[in-house]
Amino acid sequence: MSPRGVPVDPAERAGRILDAAARLLLRYGHDRTTINDIAREAGVAKGSVYAHWRSRDRLFLALLRREQAVLLTQIMERLNAAGRPADLELLLAESVRAYQRSPLVTAVLTRDTEILGGLARAAAEEGRPTGGITELLVTLRADGLVRTDRTLAEQVTVLSTVYLGYFVTAPLMPDEFRVADDAVPGLVAEAIWRALERPEPLAPDEVTAMDRAVRDHVVRALAGAEERLHAALTTEETA
């Protein structure tokens, strides 16, 4: 119950707390954001925060899990709206686009300790929002849908360097070399795909196989993210 005797929806309250934590993390960073600050920003009592999460880092981890699930949902929606079979290039482009809209998940990707503190490494190791693209590459290599004259390690190196490189270097780029944000997803995806695509065009049945592999990959990643989110949103009172 609220102080005025109005029933409180725990899910709605948890959402407000997470929204407040997100704003404060981006504004002040991990070390300067306290439970008191979050409770005040969310308009709830400090005890209400602890009713959901017994520590600040558990709250922050729940927030990151929520952001990861939202990001993967956006990617799936964009794949469905593309009006064409999904492929690795499209997945990479939509993944970059989703990251651009999610500074907190980007902080996980780049292990930004100013925003996330010690959680930066823990969150990155727990499960990347892209759902482990290496697993998808293994599948595509096994099915002959990408080139195999390079080793998996070499391909992962190229993919990671180009993909992560954009998010790391973008804030450092001189103004004369800045590219419009909406042009970046296609540029990054094309650069990676050119390094991974095989010389021969995919046959129609292979296009279908690629589409299925990419969509299955995102579905599995989203299911895992939602499972972790559900566990993180279970209140300490009922855990």
UniProtKB/TrEMBL annotation:
Coiled coil feature spans: none
Residues annotated to bind DNA: 34-53
Residues annotated as domain HTH tetR-type: 11-71
SUPFAM superfamilies, alphabetized: Homeodomain-like
Keyword Transcription regulation attributed: yes
MF terms in GO: DNA-binding transcription factor activity; transcription cis-regulatory region binding
PROSITE patterns: HTH_TETR_2 (PS50977)
Domain of life the protein comes from: Bacteria
Keywords linked to the UniProt accession: DNA-binding, Transcription, Transcription regulation
The UniProt record lists the keyword Ribonucleoprotein: no
Identification of the protein by name: TetR family transcriptional regulator
